[in-house]
Amino acid sequence: MSEQPDLSERSVRDGVTVKASPGLLRRRDVRLTAFAALVITLSAGISALVAQAVQPDYVVFDMKGTIDTFRQQTAQSALDKEKLEALTKRFGSSLDASLSDWQAAHGGVILVKGAVVAGVTDITPVIQADIARQMQAAP
């Protein structure tokens, strides 16, 4: 014969369910939400720093003004055609070398002055001084 517990014991045992206290769940949800917000904030900050570090500097160079100045200076000199061609080639090589050297040293992007309205550093005097130095050094 099997003994059955009386009705009062069965209802107590069957009706018992183990639940976590609501306060514990709320605290855990708040902690997870705070942790997720922290991770997202840190990720955004790191992304902004990396983007700023990787972005190159933009500078402007007055190519037209530099070439016009060279033309004015050569027009005032009494050079024959061969010497003028050699001087022009030397100027072109010096111009290319100066721009390439500046770009290699600074890693920036050089824009022509006509393409930029304002807000960019002008490196024209630096490049013109380097061109003048190269032109004087060359025979």
Automatic annotation (TrEMBL):
This is Type-F conjugative transfer system protein TrbI. The chain crosses the membrane at residues 32-54. It comes from the Bacteria. Keywords: Membrane, Transmembrane, Transmembrane helix. Pfam families: TrbI_Ftype. NCBIfam families: TrbI_Ftype.
